[in-house]
Amino acid sequence: MLASHNLTENTYSEILFEKRPCRDLSGNPVEGLFNAWIILNNPQQYNSYTTGAVKEVILAMREASNDRSVVAVVFTGVGDKAFCTGGNTKEYAEYYAGNPQEYKQYMRLFNDMVSSILMNDKPVVCRVNGMRIGGGQEIGMACDFSIAQDFARFGQAGPKHGSAPDGGSTDFLPLFVGIENAMFSCTVCDPWSAYEAIRGGLVTEVVPALRVNGEFIPNPLVYTDQWVNSKGQIVYGKMKTGEDLAKGKELMKSGEMDLAMLDQAVERFCTKLLYLMPNCLSKTLNSLRKHKLEHWDRNKESNRDWLALNMMTEGKAGFRAFNDGPKDKREVDFIKLRQLLAEGHEWNDELIRAVSPQCQ
User: Which of 123, 247, 297, 318 keeps 20 to 30 A from 37, CA to CA?
Assistant: First the structure.
């Protein structure tokens, strides 16, 4: 009888955990060997993770890591809209805002989720089935590889909504895209298309997801077939504008989203991993992961402390604005906020009400 190294017998209610057969080079299922699929299951809220889901991801990563029959882990989300958009803003606004002691405990769990990916004994592939934003970007970058459908968007949201991307992005993103691109993404929060992400080195592979008349075509909303415009500016991967965008939207209406090519790409990649020496693969991954861990382990605890205290000020204002504001206005009045702070106004409920979208 083989010993179990799991901490507990796991049951999952907020995520999905599936073992799918590995496939050989001919595409045939391999007896007794599997890829573990860990799937965020909150599509109504763009696969944002609740406290309960974070706990289950930690347990699932540990279970997959310990399972002798598992070759690789695929980390993804339900649907075609989002891999993950980060923490559940409803829970943030209604429970954690104004409660730094509680949010600090939550951030312990979040940090453990990131570490459970970085310390997995199996290679972890992020199947980017849609938006990868905020904390979703951070847990995605903790993975070893990313394969994306070409409507996916990548980016941060922290400074827009009352936080800092200190759950991994300030540690990992410069390693992927360089310091200046990381500065841009983490501060301005403009998202990148999947094609910009692969050009910048953020993902391993990008595949089409729109099927028109039975054929897969590249995302018609972004420039995918040219590098520079008539002004000499790089436009590859950037969102189209004007007439080009209108034409792209019309073409999109005539098709349907289909993630078959994404699934095929993920399966092909997992098959590549199958045909490697398992211990040599694990050692190589761990050696390369040290570059992430060097920054992550140095900063995660102090970042956790700051993020907790921030829930008394900008976090409290920002998350409540996002949760309670109208759909077309989910940010605080930044100018009003800066004016009040310049006048020496203290952080209190009066200030938060004054800058909230409900009062504008």
Answer: 297
Return the structure tokens found at 339. 């004016």
Token code pair at residue 188:
């301005």
Domains of the chain: residue spans and CATH: 15-209+259-310 (3.90.226.10), 325-359 (no CATH)
* 87 DSSP 8-state letter: B
Residues with Cβ within 8 Å of 18's Cβ and at least 6 positions away in sequence, in order, are: 36, 37, 39
Classified as helix, coil or strand, 299 is helix
Collapsed DSSP state (helix, strand, coil) of residue 186 = helix
Instruction: Determine the residue type at 298.
Output: R
% of the chain surpassing 70 pLDDT: 99
Residue 26 clears pLDDT 80, i.e. is over it: yes
Distance between CA atoms of residues 47 and 70, nearest Å = 25
Residue 252 pairs in a beta bridge with none
What mean pLDDT, rounded, does the chain reach? 95
Task: State pLDDT tens for residues 277-331.
Answer: 999 999 999 999 999 999 999 999 999 999 999 999 999 999 999 998 888 888 9
C-alpha 350/C-alpha 117 separation (Å) is 41
Other C-beta atoms lying within 10 Å of the C-beta of residue 121: 18
Neighbours of 66 (CB within 10 A): 16
Write 283-289 long-range contacts (CB < 8 A, 24+). 285/123, 285/144, 288/144, 289/118, 289/144
Query: Taking 80 as the threshold, does the pLDDT of residue 110 lie above it?
Result: yes
